[in-house]
Every structure is written in C-alpha cells, then in structure tokens.
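Forwarding these from the shared drive since the link keeps breaking.
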Amino acid sequence: MLFDLDGTLLDTAPDMVGALNELRCHEGLAALPFETLRRHVSHGAARLVSVGFGLVEGAEFERLRLGFLDTYRARLASDTRPFDGMEEVLARFAADGLPWGIVTNKPAWLTDPLLAALGLDRRAGCVVSGDTLAERKPHPRPLLHAAQLLGLDPALCSYVGDAERDIQAGRAAGMRTAVAAFGYLGEDDDPWSWQPDTIVSHPAELLPWLGLAEAR
C-alpha cells in the first residue's frame, strides 16, 4: 500500500492553513476561513499563496511563497496528525506484515522532519518525496521507484491519494488506485471522472478493499 501524504495519510491542513493565515496577518491582512483554504492544501505552497494573496506574481509572489514555507516549517507538526482511523489501518498492516510507503510531491526537507516528528519515518517501508527524483506526480516514476524500494511488482501495489494527479500516477504505474474522499477534495472535483478503482470515505474502508478484515 502506498499513500499520498497531505490529505491522505496526514491531516496537515491545520498547520498549512495556520501558516498561511499567520503570514496574512504579518502582511496586514485578516485570516481567511479554514474551510476556504483546506481544499487547496494538497496542491502545495504555490496554490495556497495564490489563494491567500490573489494576483501576485514575479518577485512578490516568490517572497510570499518563501515566507509561507518558512512560517510552515516553524510549525510543521504542531497540529498535524494522521486522519482519524489511519493509525488502526497502519497497525493492521503491521500485524499482517503488509508493507506500506509514502509517495508525495512535498519536498524532502519538509517531508522528512514531519514524519520524524510523528514517528512515521521508522514505520514506513519507503518514502519518496517530491525532490527524490527528477519527476513528480502525475508522472508514474515516483510510484514505480517506491515499488522498487519495497521490492514489489507495481502490479501488486495500490496507491491512495486525494488529487487527480495521484490517480493519474497510480494508473500509469499499473497500480490499483483509491481516492481518499476524506482528504482535501474541492467543491468542483469529480473523483469518479479520474477513473480510480474505488473511493473511500474513511481510512478503515481500505482494509476490505485490500482483502483484509476490519481492524482488530
């Protein structure tokens, strides 16, 4: 089992939205509603800055983007936790000896300390970050690399994520795919149009989909 990170394995929205609103306040702007920003979290810093500051570009956009990243790094794991039910799923994987890993577009300088802070770096069988390879999702190579690190045929792997690029990457890698509907889908997203194998509304639904009984 391979997981996307933001909006799939971890609920990072409290810290990412918090960092953006902290930066807005520093810039003399009012905080934006959490739900307005939450659905953009999976699309990374550039999307959040665009949503949070509107039509800025060039040097000003880069200044705000770097400011957001510095602010986010300072509170990386303050309120971030696995989604409700995910710990039980990971515990079942451990009990059954099912290997799992992470494939994210988040850069390693943020991914690695975040996973370490939550103790997940010692549990994941592999971690492929957005700068591990030259390619990022929706390219399939990061997923194929993860399967190689786990010593598995990609056809034996499944990938779950909350964005269209996740499903595109998984399908291109020859893996089964699942959409995490509990993640950061936008109001206009139509996840069935992405052609996943399934859509799950709660992490526990991954267990029967993988042929496992409910968590013990």
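-- next protein --
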Amino acid sequence: MTPKHSNGSPPEDICLTCGLCCNGAIFADVAVQPGDNIGRLQSAGLIPFSRSRQSAPIVSGFSNHRFAQPCAAFDGCRCSIYADRPKHCQAFECLLLKSVKLGIREKKAALSIIRTAREQADKVWRLLRELGDTDEDLALKIRFEQTTRRLEANGWDAHSADIYGQLTLAFHALNLLLSEHFYR
C-alpha cells in the first residue's frame, strides 16, 4: 500500500508536476530492459536505437538498446503509456520522490524544488533557442553539446558569446540542482 501524505494524496503525485525524468532534462535516453515489449513501445511512438549506432533502429534484442529522451509518450506531465511504460521507467524513483516517501521532505518543499528545477530547465531551453537550437526532440544535454560544438566550429559574435555564457551558467546550475535533488 502506498503511504498517503498529510493532504491525503500519495507522494507520487509530485511526479505529475515534474516530468523531468521524461522530458529530456535528466536523462538523454532510457535503456531497454528484459521484459520490455519493444513492439508495443514502438507502436506507442518510442523508437529504440543502438547506443553504438545512434541512428540504427532496433527490431529485437536488448543489449545496448535505448529509447531516446524526451519521451514520445510524455505529454507535459503525464505518460500516455503509463501502464505499459518501459521497465526502467517503472523502476525509477528520483531522490526527491524517495525523500517524500520516507517523510524526510514535505511534499510542499518538494513541489518548490520541482518548480525551481523546471524554471531552470525552461531557461536553458529558451537560451538554446536563442542560439538557434530548435531541435525539441533531443535531450537537453545533447542539445547543449551540439550547440557548443556548432558555436566553437562557426565562431560567435559578442551577442552569441553573451547568450552562450548565460546558457553555460544556467546549464551548470540546472545540473547541480538535478544532482542534488533528483539523482546522483
């Protein structure tokens, strides 16, 4: 039985205001696990790939296979395939959720941390767009790395250098927040 919080709702309700584990902010990809129904997950829009060959679709098997983030089944803060989501997703609980479940952190404080993390992620996404990266189908880390490589290869003007400086600081602040409260 899932413990209820003081307001009568289960601790997992904080996940519905978060979504950072599905939207590409925390993870770049999710490993396919034994027991995952790849065919069903593919029909739901998830596209497995081999880590060794990022562009090669996978038909069967598990070794080194992953699903890209942000998740195609994520619609803001809800999983459209929740009952059939990948095994990794079923097993994952962030540190923040664990702390609420254990009574170490109040739900209200957890929601405040989530709000701060989402605002910081939004800032990173906004700065990436300002620098010309509009590929919303890639995880935040990959977008940051691609933008860095592109700017280093093509050079930048004073405005781009200023925005990139802001981006670097925002990305670092987000990673610190995520590593402190969501995963280690």
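The two ends are 27 Å apart (CA to CA). Confidence is low (pLDDT under 50) at residues 1-5, 53-59.

- D.
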